[in-house]
Amino acid sequence: MDRTGAAVREEAVLFGQTRSLVGILTDPPESIKNTNLPGMILLNAGIVHRVGPQRLYVKIARSLAELGFVVLRFDFSGIGDSRVRPDNLPFERSAVSEAQDAMNHLGSARGMDRFVLLGLCSGADMSLKTAWYDPRVVGAVLINPQGDQQDAANELNAFAVDRKISRYYWQTALRNPKSWLRAVRGEANYAAIVRALVFQLRHRYARPKRASSGMNRDPANFRSLVERGVRLLLVFSKGDAGLDYFREVYGEELRHLCSGGKMDLHVIPRSTHTFTFLRDQGRLLGLVREWAQSVTARDLEVVREAT
């Protein structure tokens, strides 16, 4: 419900070229409906269907609808209630195509021509790729994106593994009495401990060497979106592999992109990859709501100045 007590409205929809995609369309109460706002589209987090991990997408959709946004959360083909595609189109291409189908549906059903995409994990990656291909996307909320780690150089993958091992031993095992007991009994993985120690010493005292991203295109994608005026919000769980990846690939450029006001980055401490705890879900919802309101306020101000 919004502040006046009016409830948001939800409707099951079928769309796509063969009407095989299943989604839930969440409309705001009529009292706060704003046709100037972009449509919000939520893309699947991995193979979790449209409710999202811990029903996170349901909470996000209803929360944004309470601000006046029309929100569509749907299942990619072969996930949840959406039928499997009859062709052999690779997922990265079919996901972009189906996200565009979702935009087309909101265009015909609600008269919208501007959209903000939101996703967690692979949903964030697909949001980024769709935004890069389709100029109707004016914003994206990327929650724990993982980037093109599979296509990254071996050096970058090795760095990510070493950092994950080091973080475990220095932040978790070091404070766990059971870990010390296993070490005394000779049951610990001493090779991994040495690997973590070497990584920590090298990272602290040696001059950092930026790992090559090889053929990775993420930095170019982000730069092109920022230059196009697309608003971006990145939210990471502290210690998430995606955060390590983006910091290593981008380096200082990540901070530079954020300084321009077109991209915001937030790190939520002590949260899991899928925001398991209600405390962390509340923090995430607060960030998304605040960003959506601030971005909308700036965009509407530009519209008023132009008219």
SS strand fraction: 15-25%
Q: Which sheet architecture does the biggest sheet show?
A: 8 strands, mixed
Helical content (DSSP H or I, runs of 4+): 40-55%
Distance between the termini: 33 Å
Task: Identify the CATH architecture of the largest domain.
Answer: 3-Layer(aba) Sandwich
Please report the total strand number as a whole number. 8
Strand order of the largest sheet: 1-2-4-3-5-6-7-8
CATH class of the largest domain: Alpha Beta
Q: Please give the oligomerization state of what you see.
A: single chain
Query: Shape from CA axes?
Result: elongated
Low-confidence segments: 211-215
Query: What would you call the structural class?
Result: alpha/beta
Q: Helical element count?
A: 10
CATH topology label of the largest domain: Rossmann fold
How would you state the average pLDDT, rounded? 84
For this structure, what is the CATH homologous superfamily of the largest domain? Alpha/Beta hydrolase fold, catalytic domain
Rg over C-alpha atoms, rounded to the nearest angstrom: 21 Å
The sequence of SSEs as H and E is EEEHEHEHEHHHHEHHEH
